[in-house]
Design a protein that fits this description.
This protein is mainly α and 349 residues long.
Amino acid sequence: MKMGIRRVIKRLSIALLTALLIVGLIYWELIIYGFQQGYGQLNIIWNARPVEEYLRDPSFPDSLKSRLELITEIRKYAIDSLGLKDTENYKTLYDQQGKEVMWVVLASQPFKLESKLWEFPIVGSVPYKGFFKKERAEKLKQELENEGWDAMIRNPGGWSTLGWFTDPILSKMLMRSEGDLANLIIHEMSHATIFVKDSVELNENLATFIGDRGAEQFLIYKYGADSEEYTTYLKEDEDYLKYVNHMLRGAKLLDSLYNEMKETDPLPYKKTLKEKLIRNIVEATDTLSLALTRHPSSRFKKHLPNNAYFLSYRQYQAKQTVFGEEWKMRFGSDLRGYISYMSKKYPFL
């Protein structure tokens, strides 16, 4: 009888080990990526210091101390006045030493505004992949381009780990204006409050909306509606929205062009039409009458943007009108009430 039990246990153990080996082989790349990202994030957390230490440090510049104090106020406002979740985030500071620490890869079909998606546990499908090593991002970008994708790399000003880690303040954040800093902190805090699996466009658009409106309300609360801080933010935002709307219109034009293309069209012909339209879209940015930038097209003097660039604006900006109308019509511009409603409508993960 004991021999029979041992034999069954042995067989079950072998079957379990075999299953684990198969799963490990299938998801080996994802497992390695997870370890790399976890190590990168933990390295930042380990080397971050409490904000209080910097505030007590006589060698730390007073101008940066005031920014740390401002972040504390923004964080408190976001929790007390907007109803965002209270976490341990943004209570420590990581010194980037002037360097970037995150590189994000995005990719799109070459003749269709359709993102490449990566599958991850819990969060589901996402249209980007982040790295703490630049060379890994560049390697993936090259691989994607070799496969025919339109790919790009961007450096995020901040990111949310959705409560899995403690998100520190990054030292480059302290270089931002008051309004831009408030926008970023509230945007990222909203991710820790509302995040829907497999819905990056909804998540990012909603966080953008909450960040924009929350920053406006915070600046009025702290500085007043006639303050330089608030009026400067409005000017910056006005410029940015003109540019955003131009890129969203450009995305629609690209959609129309790609829909008219036939599979039998020669590849060089399709590339020529695509490049011509993107060049026209870029050159037209100089007609936007921006207050803070005279020739926005100059940033693309060496390299034109590709489909991934246009898709990034859809991921963050395409639903702003929808959220804005709902917020005004149903909630009378009550942002806290709207956030509470959206939190119940979309339970966190």
